[in-house]
Every structure is written in structure tokens, then in C-alpha cells.
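We were asked to recover a plausible sequence for a given structure. The inputs and outputs are reproduced exactly as logged, with field labels preserved.

PROBLEM: sequence recovery
POSITIONS: 381
GIVEN STRUCTURE:
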């Protein structure tokens, strides 16, 4: 029996292709949802869009400080592991749920598989970097997405036989859903379709503590995003953390927030090019992928979006000082620009005017990563 652990939004799409392959191989599995993310749009929407089976066990943990959240997940997950004694637990990505469950399993001597192992930003002010380092040290199967990750793990003393370069499961999911996503109707709903085509627009996501938790930084970032919004529509599905901060800091007026999901939503409120960033509630997987695939520019501080834009060939500005995914810069369409307003504006305008060179697709980002993972597991069990 394999336990598949997921807790936060970026985990769910990584689970999907693994579940599919486990089903094909008739391997028994259970989905454990920690409840780190609990809003409908941050969790249920993804299960629905991807047709993922409902979680078998829901720990219902919710938000808290890092210690509270991690500790509560550990306490609840340990009880489940002791009762069910899985043969393997599989964790994905780098969120608090990932490290919490890996730690529980390792101490119960249950083998741990980490999908997306070895990524390093070398920035320990990021909570995710701590989660990555610790999870990798106690994992038995380290499934990597790129050669940088293999090198990082070797440097940290991980035995080579534990490292398996398999590719990127998130890209498996993207490739399987892209055509369906393009038909999601989100472009039309937002009034971005004109004369049989799609007008140029930018898509924003922003939720990292380093960008949104300080009022001056947040204000500065919205200053430049609103300058870009004077040139092209800028659509911003707002993460709950960011919405909370905008409200707390009295900055909600920086965006024109519209509830695009409401039944009576009237897209004419977006006509005539709103000159401010248009905030909308967080989107499900297909609607977001639809917007991302047709955007002229994506501006983000997410990890996964740097990879998804690389596959889509869509230019991406990453508002961070570093990335744990350098392959997206070297081979993909990603530019790491920090949060300096002038740099963001210059690069955004340059891309909108001149475009970018078409880049390469990183090795093994071919839709078959989950198949490779499950092959390795069936050999070992
Ligand atoms: C977490 C991950 C981050 C990932 C992000 C994707 C960690 C350390 N961080 O950050 O790596 O990129 O998810 O979204 O695991 N909230 C809600 N509803 C929800 C979830 C959260 O309102 O369903 C609000 C709460 O106020 C909460 C805050 O968002 O306190 C932050 O949530 P949390 O899970 O702690 O971290 P994220 O910022 O979402």
C-alpha cells in the first residue's frame, strides 16, 4: 500500500499522473490530504478539474504558524501511519505537509519517496528550502526533474543509487490537460477575446512572504504592475494570503477586484481596458492553465509556474532574487528579476515589444515522468 500525501495547491496536480500510473499497475494506494489548503478554490477545485479520486483520509489541519502547522500534521499523520502501516509514503514538492509527513514516516521506518527532490534555491530564508533539504536527507527514493537536482543531491552526500532522474510530473499533468484547458471559456469570460483572436494580456500570481508580507514591498510591486496595466490588461487571481495582506495594509484599492466566478458577473466591467490590475478569486486548474497558455507575459513568484511557462513557451518574469529551478532560465522562458520596480518594468516592456527567443524543452519533460516513477517502484516492491 502506497500513501500519497498532498496538502497544498501545488501538490494536487503532481499527484494526478502518479495516481493514473498506480491504477494502471493495479498498485494499492491511498490519498492523504493534510488540509494545509482548505478553501474550495485552493483544494476542491483541483480534485474536480483533474478528476482526482476524493482523498481517502483527510487530516483537516488548516493554517497556523510553521511550527503549529507542521507539528499538527505530524501528530495526525503518525496516528494514521501506525494504524495502517503503509509500505511506502510518497510526498511531492516542498510545502510544510511534505516535510511533516516525510519525517513521521522516516521515524516509523516506513520508506519515503520524494517527488521533485534536489531543487535548491540556496536561500534558507525561504521556508520551502528548509523543507526541501530536510525531506531529501530522510528520503529513500529521490525522484528528480533535472540534472541540477541530481548534482545538488550528490553534493549533499545522498547515495547515487537513491537518486532517479525521471522528469517532471507536473508537466505530465499539463500536457494531458492543455487542450481541454484551452476550451475552458475563461478568455471569453474575461473579455479577452476579440475579432476571433486573443488580445495581449499579462497574468500575475503573487503570494511569497518576501513579496506580500511587507507593506512597502507590496505597494511598490503593485505600483509597477499598475504601470503595466496601463499598456495591457493585467489579470491577477489573488491568493488568499495576498488578499488578506492587501486588506490589512489598506492596499486593496491597488487592484480592481471582481468576482468573476459569480453567476451574475458582467464582463463589461472589464471593457475599455481597466487601467488597474484586475483581481479575481483564485482559479481552478483548467481555467488557470487556459489563461497561462495564451498570456503575452506571466509575472509570478511561484515555483511551478516557472516550469509550466517554459513548456508553454510563454515569457515569465519571476519576482524573486533566486530560483530553485535554474533550468527554466537556462533552457526555458524564465527571467528572474527580483522585486526592483525599475527592473520589472524594463524587462516586461522589452518582452512585450520584442518577444523572446524560443527555447528548449528540458530533458524528460515529456509527459512520462510518472510512468518512470511507478516502473522504479514496481521493481523495488
Ligand atoms: C504554501 C506553501 C508554498 C506554496 C503555496 C502555494 C509552505 C511553507 N508554503 O504557501 O510553498 O507555494 O502554499 O499556494 O508550505 N489560506 C486560506 N485558505 C487556504 C489556504 C491558506 O485562506 O485554503 C490563507 C491563510 O490565511 C493562511 C495563509 O493563506 O494563513 C497562508 O497559507 P499557508 O498554507 O501557510 O501558506 P501559503 O502561503 O499558501
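RECOVERED SEQUENCE:
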Amino acid at each position: 500500500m502506497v500513501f500519497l500525501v498532498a496538502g497544498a495547491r501545488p501538490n494536487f496536480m503532481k499527484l494526478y499522473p502518479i495516481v493514473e500510473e498506480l491504477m494502471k499497475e493495479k498498485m494499492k494506494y491511498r490519498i492523504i490530504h493534510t488540509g494545509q489548503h482548505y478553501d474550495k478554490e485552493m483544494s476542491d477545485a483541483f480534485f474536480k478539474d483533474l478528476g482526482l479520486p476524493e482523498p481517502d483520509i483527510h487530516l483537516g489541519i488548516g493554517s497556523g504558524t510553521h511550527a503549529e502547522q507542521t507539528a499538527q500534521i505530524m501528530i495526525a499523520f503518525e496516528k494514521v501511519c501506525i494504524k495502517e502501516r503503509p509500505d511506502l509514503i510518497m510526498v511531492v514538492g516542498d510545502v510544510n505537509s511534505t516535510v511533516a509527513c516525510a519525517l513521521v514516516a522516516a521515524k516509523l521506518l516506513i520508506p519515503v519517496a520524494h517527488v521533485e527532490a534536489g531543487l535548491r534555491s540556496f536561500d534558507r530564508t525561504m521556508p520551502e528550502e528548509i523543507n526541501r533539504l530536510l525531506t531529501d536527507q530522510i528520503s529513500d527514493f529521490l525522484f528528480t526533474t533535472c540534472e541540477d537536482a541530481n548534482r545538488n543531491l550528490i553534493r549533499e552526500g545522498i547515495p547515487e543509487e537513491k537518486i532517479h532522474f525521471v522528469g517532471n510530473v507536473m508537466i505530465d499533468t499539463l500536457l494531458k490537460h492543455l487542450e481541454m484547458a484551452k476550451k475552458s471559456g475563461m478568455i471569453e469570460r474575461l473579455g479577452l477575446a476579440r475579432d476571433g483572436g486573443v488580445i495581449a494580456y499579462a497574468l500575475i500570481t503573487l503570494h511569497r512572504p518576501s513579496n506580500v508580507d511587507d507593506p512597502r514591498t507590496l505597494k511598490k510591486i503593485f505600483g509597477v504592475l499598475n504601470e503595466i496595466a496601463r499598456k495591457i490588461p493585467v489579470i491577477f487571481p489573488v491568493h488568499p494570503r495576498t488578499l488578506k495582506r492587501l486588506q490589512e495594509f489598506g492596499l486593496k484599492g491597488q487592484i480592481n477586484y471582481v468576482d468573476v466566478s459569480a453567476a451574475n458577473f458582467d464582463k463589461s466591467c472589464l471593457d475599455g481596458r481597466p487601467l488597474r490590475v484586475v483581481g479575481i478569486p483564485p482559479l481552478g486548474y483548467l481555467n488557470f492553465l487556459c489563461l497561462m497558455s495564451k498570456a503575452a507575459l506571466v509575472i509570478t513568484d511561484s515555483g511551478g509556474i516557472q516550469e509550466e511557462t517554459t513548456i508553454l513557451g510563454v515569457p515569465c518574469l519571476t519576482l524573486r532574487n533566486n530560483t530553485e529551478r535554474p533550468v527554466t532560465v537556462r533552457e526555458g522562458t524564465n527571467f528572474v528579476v527580483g522585486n526592483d520596480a525599475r527592473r520589472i518594468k524594463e524587462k516586461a516592456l522589452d518582452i512585450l515589444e520584442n518577444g523572446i527567443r524560443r527555447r528548449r524543452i528540458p530533458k524528460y519533460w515529456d509527459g512520462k515522468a510518472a510512468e518512470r516513477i511507478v516502473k522504479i517502484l514496481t521493481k523495488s516492491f
